[in-house]
Amino acid sequence: MATTSIPLVTFNNGQKCPMLGLGTWNVSNFQIRQNIVFSSSFPLQRFHSHFSMRFRTSYNPIFTVEMYIMFQSLEREVYEAVCHAIDLGYRHFDCAYYYQNEGQIGEAIQDKISQGVITREDIFITTKLWITFYSSPDLIRKCLQESLDLLQMDYVNLYLMHWPHAFRSGGDLVPFKADGKFDFDDSVDYVDVWKTMECLVDEGLARSIGVSNFNTKQLETLLGVARIKPVTNQIEVHPYLTQKKMAAFCRDNDLVITAYSPLSNPTNPFRAKVPFVLEDQTVKDIASRYDKTPAQVLIRYQIQLGNITVPKSVTKSRLEENRDIFDFELSQEDMDTLDGLDANGRTCCVPGSEAAKHFPFGEE
């Protein structure tokens, strides 16, 4: 196992963040939703209502013993993954209210603190404001407080706006209209949401704030009015989607990119029909020359770009593999070759979200 320390990046406010973290999307409770919606005949409208007791919704399903056992197993899985990650030296955990697994993450971290393995100050916690909470300052605070309660923490290191667009508040986490389409709230302006995010920093509930899935025009608008500057934009980045325009914008404005789906997310339930970058022969050839795996090359690629990156796994061997990327360096020629694979291959775009007023991917 590699013992090299994970390097830190310094944000524009002086706060430091580990460049390698553990992504927690599509793990535990969220995984069950994926399996139900995309491998059965359940309509999309039940995306979040099938397990109401877990997802704070009004639908009352028949909750079978098999489903309960599945829940218990997967909750244990994310708990153990976080424990393994801490033992392997991970200190950055990328969470979100929407992922519905902050409780297990918080429990694992608190157990490791109780065991004396880590302290709270050793850990960098990112979580995200979900888009059904955008419509008022009270709801924004409520969302963060619920995350803090589940994580068993007094503050988060980084709080992100999950998307620039908003859903209608007051119902399911993913609300639908009678016609089965998403129920967006286009009256909500992300600039107004940001003003409350700034207050959360003032109140000591978040050390840093940022955004996720914003395009350059949206970031430019936000920077023009922000009292507290965002420190990062968390976006999908990998060799099939290099995001060079966004990278240049962030570099010019002293923002760090956080790259999600650095392996192009082969388990994404919304995945567009884009080839798997892990299976690209060019990536495999580069990995072979360094005696590394394709995943290690792709994660190392992000680090050398200067990006924070948050690959996800619940498997101890994969967690160790993803961590073991600090004992080699890709040549500039290989970095250029990986850049050359760009095909605007975005994999994470939920069908139907393009109807939102502030949908970010229409232009970029």
TrEMBL record:
Q: Which part of the chain is the NADP-dependent oxidoreductase domain?
A: 75-342
Q: Which PROSITE patterns does this one have?
A: ALDOKETO_REDUCTASE_1 (PS00798), ALDOKETO_REDUCTASE_2 (PS00062), ALDOKETO_REDUCTASE_3 (PS00063)
Q: Which domain of life is it from?
A: Eukaryota
Q: Which residues bind substrate?
A: 162
- The protein's site described by Lowers pKa of active site Tyr is found at 128
Question: Where are the catalytic residues?
Answer: 99 (proton donor)
Q: Which family does it belong to?
A: Belongs to the aldo/keto reductase family.
Q: Name one GO molecular function term.
A: oxidoreductase activity
What keywords would UniProt list here?
NADP, Oxidoreductase
Q: Does the keyword NADP apply?
A: yes
Q: What's the protein called, per UniProt?
A: Aldose reductase-related protein 1-like isoform X1
Tell me the organism: Diaphorina citri
Q: Name one Pfam family in it.
A: Aldo_ket_red
